[in-house]
Structure formats: structure tokens, C-alpha cells
């Protein structure tokens, strides 16, 4: 653990006050001309993390011409939003209706008032642009939704791959859209659909010229097929090897990101919104010891650290939207003061107010000790967070910058009709 004096001295010396949006300018200057900006969050339900990422994202798009946003969300739901903000033919009359596409738990992650503001801005911005900014989902969970999207599109264009898609989908039908049932059946009884979805992805890739009349539709069907293959692998694995299922998920996110980059071209630049545990380099945490990788590590390895810029987020206390059990209704929960000895604790000890830390060659050695760093998931138990919500971290190796909001509040979920 870092000695109190060491870390507080370093924070006092290098932190910048964050009082208004203009105070983000030094961060934007540091980002420079990278290919990929990773914007984290310490929870999936904190308003300030969303609003600050929105401000950074707007400036990256306006000032540095970034091409797309990719988030820790399902591809089919995000693609509906993408179609809406680009002005494609959709059933949605406004941004609020478009966000109703996020109807799978935890809906509050993306169907919230904070994201609504971003989507409305993107819609207005794209109406003034020839090259429109996209919005996509990188996650792996949407197995059934992606299969349904594939079949619907292949039927529409009368594709020769339709029969294979229907065969693959029929393999999953006995599990009634319950991933837990499929996971147990495939892992313990050998009843899986691995070959069916692998064959489907292969055929769609081989026949991709059939889908090039509408380039975005081609991207959609290819990534949905990728989701189906990797989701099958994920659910197949999660019962018997939780670490491996984590790795499958993050490898999938990077693979989906590669498809998006290919669609936008060699000179495109992307912004990723995901939890700190995904965007902060796993090698700077105890994840490395457990054999876990993540998006932050994999993208640095793939594109080069000089082309990837990761921004972590944290808070000292406040409230958050989360659930006490997977699948349960969300609640507004209290976030207790950060535990003594954690990074968030020392950020508070060095003075009131929000802060920005920029890690670079001049100060990385001042932040290279291991220290606890809070992480809150969609399932949260504030009363016992000191037992497992703090990730041992070398902060300056995990991130390129860190934004601290001292007091935060929960997001405002949009009520599902």
C-alpha cells in the first residue's frame, strides 16, 4: 500500500481542478491524435460519469473528428439507436422512443436521461454532417436478439444463408431464451449449438458481397453473426470457467470493434464507453494474476499504447442506481465514503472538489504503487463493499488519465412502457 504522504503529495502536485467543462481542455490536449479513446466508469449507474463522458465525447467528435461511439451494450439495441441518429427509416419519433430499444435488464445502463441528452445531440449533429457519427454495442449477451435480427434481414433480402440461420436458431429454441438453461445444458450435458453458429458466421463472411448493397446492413448482419458465435461460446463456458467466460466477452468486444473500424475505414477514430474494469489495462491490476484480460489491455496490444488513451473515473461518496441481485428491479442506493487507504479516499483527503489527473512520463513513477480502487457493478451491496469492491491497481499503468467526482448521484432511468 502507498504511504499516505506519498500519494497525497503526488495528487496535490499533479491534479487539476475540475469545476466546469472548460477544465477538460488539458485532457483533450493530452489525448492528441489517438485512434481510440476509452472512457470508463466506476459504476453503471452514476449520473456524473455519463454526463462527463458526454462532454468529452462531444468535443472529440467536434474538435478531433471521431467517427463512432461503441458502448458496453447489446448490438441489436444500439443499432436501433444508430439508425435513428443517422436518419435511417425507423419507427421512432424521438430519442426517448429510440432508447426504448434497451428492454433487456439492466435497462437503466443505457435507457436513462443522461444518455438521452447524448442521443439528442448526436441526432442534431448528424443532420449537419455528410459523414455521420455512429453508435454501436460491443457486448456479447444478445444471443437470441442477434439471431432474430439475422433471420429477419436474411428473409428480407432472400439470402441463400437463410436456411442455415434458421437451423442455427432452431438449435437454441428448446432453451426458451434462457441463457442459464443453455449454459447448463451445453457445459454439463454436451448439448450445444457451437457448430451451427460457427457455420453460420463462416457462410455470412464468405457471402458478404451479397450484403454490400447496403454497407451498414452488411456490418449489422456480420456483427450479429459474430455475437451469436461468441455468445454461444460465452454461455457454454460460464458454468465451468468464469475466468474464461470473462476473457471470451472482452475478446469479443475487441473483435466487434475491429469490424466497426473496418466499416469506417483506415483513418477512422473511435470512442468506447465501458466500465473501468474493461477499459483500464488488466495488467495493472490483480486480474493479471488470475489470467484475465480486458479491452484496455487487448486494444493497447492490438493498436499500440500510443494509439489508445484510457480515462478512468471514480467517486468518494453519493448515490447510485443498481440492484441487489441479478435481474431484480433497480434501486437508488447510497454509496458510502471510500474506504481508508483507497485511491478515492486520498483524492478526498487532498481537498474538496472534483479533480482531473493526467498520467504521463513526468509522473507515472509517482503513481506506480498498488492501491485499492473502487468498482461498483449492476449488482451492489453497499454495506459489504469493503470486502470485494476495491481492485488492487497501479493507477498510472491502468489509465492515461483519471477523473474524480467527489460526490455523485444515481442516473435517472427512463421508465419503460
From TrEMBL:
It holds the Pfam family Erythro_esteras. It comes from the Bacteria. This is Erythromycin esterase family protein. It comes from Bacillus salitolerans. The lineage of its organism: Bacteria, Bacillati, Bacillota, Bacilli, Bacillales.
